[in-house]
Amino acid sequence: MEWREVVEHPSLKELPFKIETNEWGKIMMTPASYAHGAHQSLLVRLLAGLVKEGQTSTECPIRTSRGTRVADVAWASAAFLKKHGVRKLELPESPEIVAEIESLSNSAAELKEKRLLYFEVGAKEFWLCDKNGTMRFFNPQGELEKSEMFSQFPGHIDIEVV
């Protein structure tokens, strides 16, 4: 299935799952949880608070060599947005930062594959938030101590504190 078909299919519009496609156009679904959404929301708020230029997004569909993957959170610079626009069903390349929030249904191999796919299509950094809020940061060369693009981003985020 092409991504447009997935997005426009009437029976898929109200599913309580995150939908992605694999390299053969088959649909893959991941169930959502409140904690997952809370981590997404907090990542967006913290990132938006640090950066006045560009835009954050949740559920960002990115075309990769192995289908359309949907980043939990993404940040795109003004230059990226000018080049690609914001009214797309999916992006033909990755925004500069993509973040995934680990869930019970993720395997380490799946998250590593997503990280490599995002780098393959232009991501500058990949952020991984585990279920406890611990952040890990990567660039194409490997793991970083902290984000190189936004060094003030915390190494831990806490959804328990409101």
Question: Could you explain the architecture of this structure?
Answer:
With 162 residues, the protein is α+β, with helices and mostly antiparallel strands. The protein has a domain at 33-144: tt1808, chain A (Alpha-Beta Complex). It contains four helices and eight strands; from the N terminus they run H-E-E-H-E-E-H-E-H-E-E-E. The chain has helices spanning 3-8, 34-50, 78-84, 108-120; strands at 17-21, 27-31, 55-64, 67-76, 97-101, 125-129, 135-139, 142-144. It has a six-stranded mixed β-sheet with strand order 3-4-5-6-7-8. A two-stranded antiparallel sheet has the order 1-2. Strand 3 (55-64) and strand 4 (67-76) form a beta hairpin. The longest helix is centred in the N-terminal third of the chain and has 17 residues, at 34-50. The chain starts with a helix and ends in an 18-residue tail after the last strand. The mean pLDDT is 86.
Quick description:
This protein is an alpha+beta fold.
DSSP strand content: 25-35%
What can be said about the biggest beta sheet? 6 strands, mixed
Strand line-up of the largest beta sheet = 3-4-5-6-7-8
Given this structure, which CATH class of the domain at 33-144 is correct?
A: Alpha Beta
Helices, by number, come to 4
Fill in the CATH topology of the domain at 33-144: tt1808, chain A
Order of helices and strands: HEEHEEHEHEEE
Q: How would you classify the helix and strand content by structural class?
A: alpha+beta
In whole angstroms, the N-to-C terminal distance is 41 Å
CATH superfamily heading of the domain at 33-144:
tt1808, chain A
Task: Note the overall shape.
Answer: globular
List how many beta strands DSSP finds. Answer: 8
Rg from Cα: 15 Å
Mean pLDDT score, rounded? 86
Ranges with pLDDT <50 over ≥5 residues?
Answer: none
In CATH, the architecture of the domain at 33-144 is: Alpha-Beta Complex
